[in-house]
UniProtKB/TrEMBL annotation:
Protein name: Acetolactate synthase
Reactions listed under catalytic activity: 2 pyruvate + H(+) = (2S)-2-acetolactate + CO2
Membership in a protein family: Belongs to the TPP enzyme family.
Cofactor note (record): Binds 1 Mg(2+) ion per subunit. Binds 1 thiamine pyrophosphate per subunit.
Enzyme Commission number(s): 2.2.1.6
Lineage, opening ranks: Bacteria, Pseudomonadati, Pseudomonadota, Betaproteobacteria, Chitinivorax
Organism the protein comes from: Chitinivorax tropicus
Length: 553
């Protein structure tokens, strides 16, 4: 058996059905073995697009995403996606071709030290050094990618090992049963909960990764405790759940941030106290004692001391913590803030107000639609104004903030769930960063719906220049954007453009009724900003608010 044949066998036995990649010299033996194999390969138009599509596939499905690239520039092009997967704990295996072993270290054509280059960006990297270890390395890579706190694993495979003979037979690693919960820590946590007058739940994306959404929802129902969430925790509690106060942090809701600052007990579940959520760390939840649940021991005490830490399976821990709490006054106060600081959508003017449009989109799309956004103002508007009731329904590049993420991620999500509606909400800056993947959508006729909010600016950077750099708009003007409807048409994708609120309802209906892919280009006012905003380095109570603006564009 050739090494390349074993690679294919490994993917099949790991249950992989779809992979994303781009062929090239050092990975050609694998592509030869792939010919006729029972795997579906999605040919993207750039290695970064392929790797981000694999990320989107993994985020939407919970399965390991697999991307493939050749050596040299193929390998360097997937680096951003590896970092994206690391910071958001996405299970990803990257198979990369390498020059033949005798050429390693000689500056051979398309040779790059991808092992060294990616060490800080992955959960683990391998350079396969002998044919005998190929099977073991691949099995360990899948085990590491999906086990514990998920993450990306890179396997660098020299071309001569792909072509040469290797031991036949592949043995996937078995799943490890979760250990029992720490009963002593659970008793300590319950004691803190019983003493608290103002407890608050702080939900992170780790709840989704742990497949513990049902356990957490039951915990909320029993305790009747108010809850806030991170960007990646959106959808864990249904949007309309009474006790869901929304996202906290820099662009969080007033109700969420006010609750965090006033609570006397914060129960963090699968959240890592990152700076976008906490603002100035030493002012974050200043009155609260902390119970921290996280499977990754490295997160405990990293940024905030925890009075009680639990690193066991949430599905075992949360039922042990569940008990009714007598916190009626606190709950009433949180709900009053939620009602009193609710978002408004009555921006004056006939132009399209992006938050109102996204709210309308949210109310019109199917209940299980998947929304993949890019990075910038539109990303925060999606988080604030679209309602998500399911986990893995809102895909967003949280930790790395990767512009160009949305379109390939939508491709991956659509491949994972061909029967569901997948929507890519993008901005004009982000969209141009992986615009070539329109060809992938066209090739496979993926029915991805693209909502492109175009303010002819790098909007979020412009907003910060306006607020914190004396309105010195340095290199944020994108008024020379192409005609996006013609760009889409060139790839065989129908498109239309709208400018006014009067066109909005019919355009939305048309977009969602389109059986295939479609791009809806929406011209918005470049002066519209994202509110509220916590200035960098400030407390979450220092939220700035601005006027609703929506003039003719």
């Amino acid at each position: 058996m050739r090494g390349a044949d074993l690679m294919v066998q490994a993917l099949v036995q790991e249950g992989v059905q779809e992979i994303f990649g781009y062929p090239g010299g050092a990975i050609m033996p694998f592509y030869d073995a792939l010919y006729g194999a029972p795997l579906r390969h999605i040919l993207c138009r750039h290695e970064q697009g392929a790797a981000l599509a694999a990320c989107g596939y993994a985020r939407a499905s919970g399965r390991v995403g697999v991307c493939v690239a050749t050596s040299g520039p193929g390998a360097t092009n997937i680096v951003t996606a590896l970092a994206d997967a690391l910071l958001d704990s996405v299970p990803l295996v990257a198979l990369v071709g390498q020059v033949a072993r005798p050429l390693i270290g000689t500056d051979a054509f398309q040779e790059i030290d991808v092992l060294g280059m990616t060490l800080p960006l992955v959960k683990h990297s391998y350079l396969v050094s002998s044919p005998d270890e190929l099977g073991e390395v691949l099995a360990e890579a899948f085990e590491l990618a999906r086990g514990g706190r998920p993450g990306p694993v890179l396997v660098d495979i020299p071309k001569d090992i792909q072509l040469g003979r290797v031991p036949a037979g592949y043995r996937p690693r078995p799943w490890h049963a979760a250990r029992p919960a720490n009963e002593h820590a659970i008793r300590q946590a319950r004691a803190l909960m019983a003493e608290a007058a103002r407890p608050l739940l702080y939900i992170g994306g780790g709840v989704v990764l742990a497949e513990a959404v049902n356990a957490l929802r039951e915990f909320v129902d029993v305790t009747q405790m108010p809850a806030v969430c991170t960007l990646k925790g959106i959808g864990v509690l249904p949007h309309h759940h009474l006790l869901n106060l929304g996202m906290l942090g820099m662009h969080g809701t007033q109700a969420a941030n006010r609750a965090v600052q006033q609570c006397d007990l914060l129960i963090a579940v699968g959240a890592r106290f990152d700076d976008r959520a906490t603002g100035q760390l030493d002012t974050f939840a200043p009155l609260a004692r902390v119970i921290h649940l996280d499977i990754d021991l490295a997160e405990i005490g990293k940024l905030r001391k925890a009075e009680v830490a639990l690193t066991d399976d949430f599905n075992h821990v949360l039922p042990g913590l569940s008990m009714p709490l007598q916190v009626d006054p606190w709950r009433a106060q949180c709900l009053a803030d939620k009602a009193g600081y609710a978002f408004r959508y009555d921006a004056p003017g006939p132009a399209i107000y992006a938050p109102a449009f996204l709210q309308a989109l949210s109310q019109s799309m199917p209940d299980d639609a998947i929304v993949c956004c890019d990075v910038g103002q539109h990303q925060m508007w999606v988080a604030q104004h679209m309602g998500f009731n399911l986990p893995r329904q809102h895909l967003s590049s949280g930790g790395l903030g990767t512009m160009g993420f949305g379109l390939p991620a939508a491709i991956g999500a659509q491949i994972a769930f061909p029967e569901r509606t997948v929507i890519n909400v993008s901005g004009d800056g982000s969209f141009m960063m992986n615009v070539q993947e329109l060809a992938t959508i066209g090739r496979y006729q993926l029915p991805v719906k693209i909502v492109l909010l175009d303010n002819a600016m790098l909007g979020m950077v412009k907003q910060w220049q306006e607020l914190f750099f004396d309105a010195r708009y340095s290199e944020t003007d994108l008024s020379d954007n192409p005609d996006f409807t013609q760009v889409a048409a060139a790839f065989g994708i129908p498109a239309r453009s709208i400018h006014t609120q009067a066109e909005q309802a019919e355009a939305l209906q048309c977009l969602l009724a389109e059986p295939g892919p479609m791009l809806l280009h929406i011209k918005i006012d470049r002066r519209t900003n994202v509110w509220p905003l916590v200035p960098p380095g400030k407390s979450n109570l220092d939220m700035m608010e601005g006027a609703l603006s929506c003039e003719v564009v």
